[in-house]
Amino acid sequence: MRVLYNKKIWSFGKELSVDELLNKLNIEIRQVVVLADGKKMEKNDNISKEASVVIVENVRGG
């Protein structure tokens, strides 16, 4: 799996859940949206080891 977040790229050679991935990267789920191959993923969804993942900051207007 290839992961892009904040102009950095990570690679993981195994399937991970969204929660496991964010824990490895020390990111809180409430702060981001996770897209795997263009599909929005939820906390317990599994991401395949072949996926391309983009993590986007969850921006809220005030």
Walk me through this protein's architecture:
This protein has a single domain (2-57), classed as Ubiquitin-like (UB roll). Strand 1 and strand 2 form a beta hairpin. Strands 2-1-7-4-5 form a five-stranded mixed beta sheet, with no helix packed on it. It has a two-stranded antiparallel ribbon with strand order 3-6. The chain has one helix at 18-25, and strands spanning 2-5, 8-11, 16-17, 32-36, 39-41, 46-47, 52-57. It is mostly beta strands and 62 residues long. The radius of gyration is 11 Å and the shape is globular. The protein is built from one helix and seven strands, in the order E-E-E-H-E-E-E-E.
Number of domains: 1
Order of helices and strands: EEEHEEEE
Report, as a whole number of angstroms, the end-to-end distance: 35 Å
SS field, number of helical segments: 1
Mean pLDDT: 94
Which strand-content bin applies to the residues? 35-45%
Looking at the overall shape, the CATH architecture is: Roll
What is Rg?
A: 11 Å
Order of strands in the sheet with the most strands?
2-1-7-4-5
Instruction: Give the biggest beta sheet.
Output: 5 strands, mixed
Q: Uncertain regions: pLDDT < 50 for 5+ in a row?
A: none
CATH topology: Ubiquitin-like (UB roll)
What is the 3D form? globular
CATH H level, superfamily name: Beta-grasp domain
